[in-house]
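Thread: "does anyone have the structure for this chain?"

Original post by V.I.:
We have the sequence but no experimental structure in hand. Need at least a predicted one for the grant figures.
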Amino acid sequence: MKTRCKPLLGTFVEITIDQDTNEAAVDHAFAAIEKIQGLMGFHQPDSELNYLNRYAHLRAVDIHPWTSQVLSIAKQVHRHSRGLFNCGIGHRLVAAGLLPRHIDFTNHNLGGIEDICFLTPELITSSRPVCLDLGGIAKGFAVDMAVKILISEGIRSGIVNAGGDLRVFGDAPKPVQIRNPKNLSELLQIGSLQNAALATSSLYFAKRDGHESHLINPLATEESDIYIQSSDSYSILAKECVYADALTKVLALSKQANHPCFAKFSAQAIRIAI
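Reply from O.Q.:
Generated one for you, tokens below.
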């Protein structure tokens, strides 16, 4: 087994493969992750995401096929979660100091993912100004793309782990652990994964640059209900990491391990409460 690690997607991404000789496959997988970061990263002012945030309500915007896939899945999860998952919360994270301010939102009646309209698979408009943040779904998509590339280049088995979003592929099951929110130095064994993904969302390492991180409730109408603090841990098991990543937000906001959205995407929920 061979493991390499790079700082990407606001975390450290580890790729472990069962072969010591195929360095090129790992290079290509990391390159795909870097491309996704460049396309969909909110922190990059010139990313495709920030371009569509600026202009999609004014004119049709061409987007990369990967961005199209992520937006399509985001709309799908939004619909089946009845709005609990909505990546149109970027302005809330900007207001909390967790994302940079690239756009002036003054007097904007900001919309959400539901306002994104596909004219063709790779041409979109928005019926209202939006401030999309794909941080809650693009990381899982990046993990899936890395796995897809590794498999296409002959890697038989391995793990891609992007700071709590991980996917295991190959014949051999791999043991997986979740940090215990009651004791952060303890890892809880939850079993093993085989050709599946696991994503975990929690605020136990919530302080960043002097700011408190939050769960954002996209359905809240009162300012006091928008920013939610929680010490629990929320994990989703699914076939693909993009769905596991997105559905952790549904679990964290609903607190329902049997939310009908999970069955729709053949996912299982694990909530560890304090």
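V.I.: this helps a lot. Helices lie at 23-40, 48-55, 65-80, 90-95, 138-152, 241-254, 260-264.
O.Q.: and Residues 205-211 have pLDDT under 50 and may be disordered.
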